[in-house]
Each structure stands twice: as C-alpha cells, then as structure tokens.
Write a structure and sequence with these properties.
single chain, alpha+beta, Alpha-Beta Plaits, Rev_trsase/Diguanyl_cyclase
Length: about 130
C-alpha cells in the first residue's frame, strides 16, 4: 500500500466533483427540471457511494459531506493512492463526472491541494510534495 505522507499521523482528503454545479445550472437554465433532478440524484448517489467506499477502506472521520464535496480523514497509511483512484473512477461511473482530490497533512493543505488539482486540469489527485517524491 502506497503511503500518502511520511510525517503526519492523520491524513486529510478533500474530494470534489468536477464541473458538477455548472452542469446542473445548464439544465435549470434550459428549464430541464426532470433532467436536473435526475442529474442531482445521480451525483448524490455517487457521493454517498464514495463515502461508503472510504469508510470501508478505513476513513476515521467524515468532516463534511454534501453536494459534490466530501472531506475526510484517516490514520496515516490506512488508505492507498490506488484506492483513492478506484473511488474517483466509481464516482465517474455513477455520475458521469470526474473527481478531483486534494490530500494533505492538515485540512488546509488538503484544500490547497484540491485547488491545485483543479488548476492542473481537474480529474487529478494531488498529494503533499514529499509524498509524491
């Protein structure tokens, strides 16, 4: 199992669906109410599935879960990068949207790495610098 950090005892992760809001907004602007409802439900189900998979893999704390965002923590070394990529792929399969993930030794670092993932083109997992080396 690839460890995501060598110095922290707890790892934080910020999962965010890519372009979920704009896709919903387009459906609403086009008065596609049922399509918006169906789309929103698929994103909600996909996010719940992500949460279930993370909890089964060893997440110790769900900090926030709503919309297309999920912020969690787990003990260092308990969840692999492979698992995170599989979870993101499952979100895509269920919702039709990709997912960006920021990983960090603190909630702030996870949020910063999520922002970096979005700036790098989305559909990425960004780790703390020393974990990527």
């Amino acid at each position: 199992m690839a460890q995501l950090s060598h110095s922290a005892q707890v790892i934080y992760a910020y999962f965010d669906g890519d372009d979920v809001g704009p896709q919903l907004e387009l459906r609403l602007l086009d008065n596609e109410i049922e399509e918006a409802r169906t789309y929103s439900l698929s994103v909600s189900k996909a996010l719940n599935r992500v949460r279930e998979m993370l909890e089964a893999a060893g997440v110790s704390d769900v900090i926030a879960c709503g919309g297309d965002d999920l912020i969690v923590s787990w003990p260092r070394g308990s969840i692999s990068l492979k698992t995170i990529n599989e979870i993101a792929a499952d979100f895509h399969r269920l919702s039709g949207r990709t997912m960006s993930v920021g990983i960090g030794r603190s909630p702030r670092e996870a949020a910063e790495n999520l922002h970096r993932a979005k700036l790098m083109g989305k559909n990425q997992v960004v780790l703390p610098v020393e974990a990527a080396e």
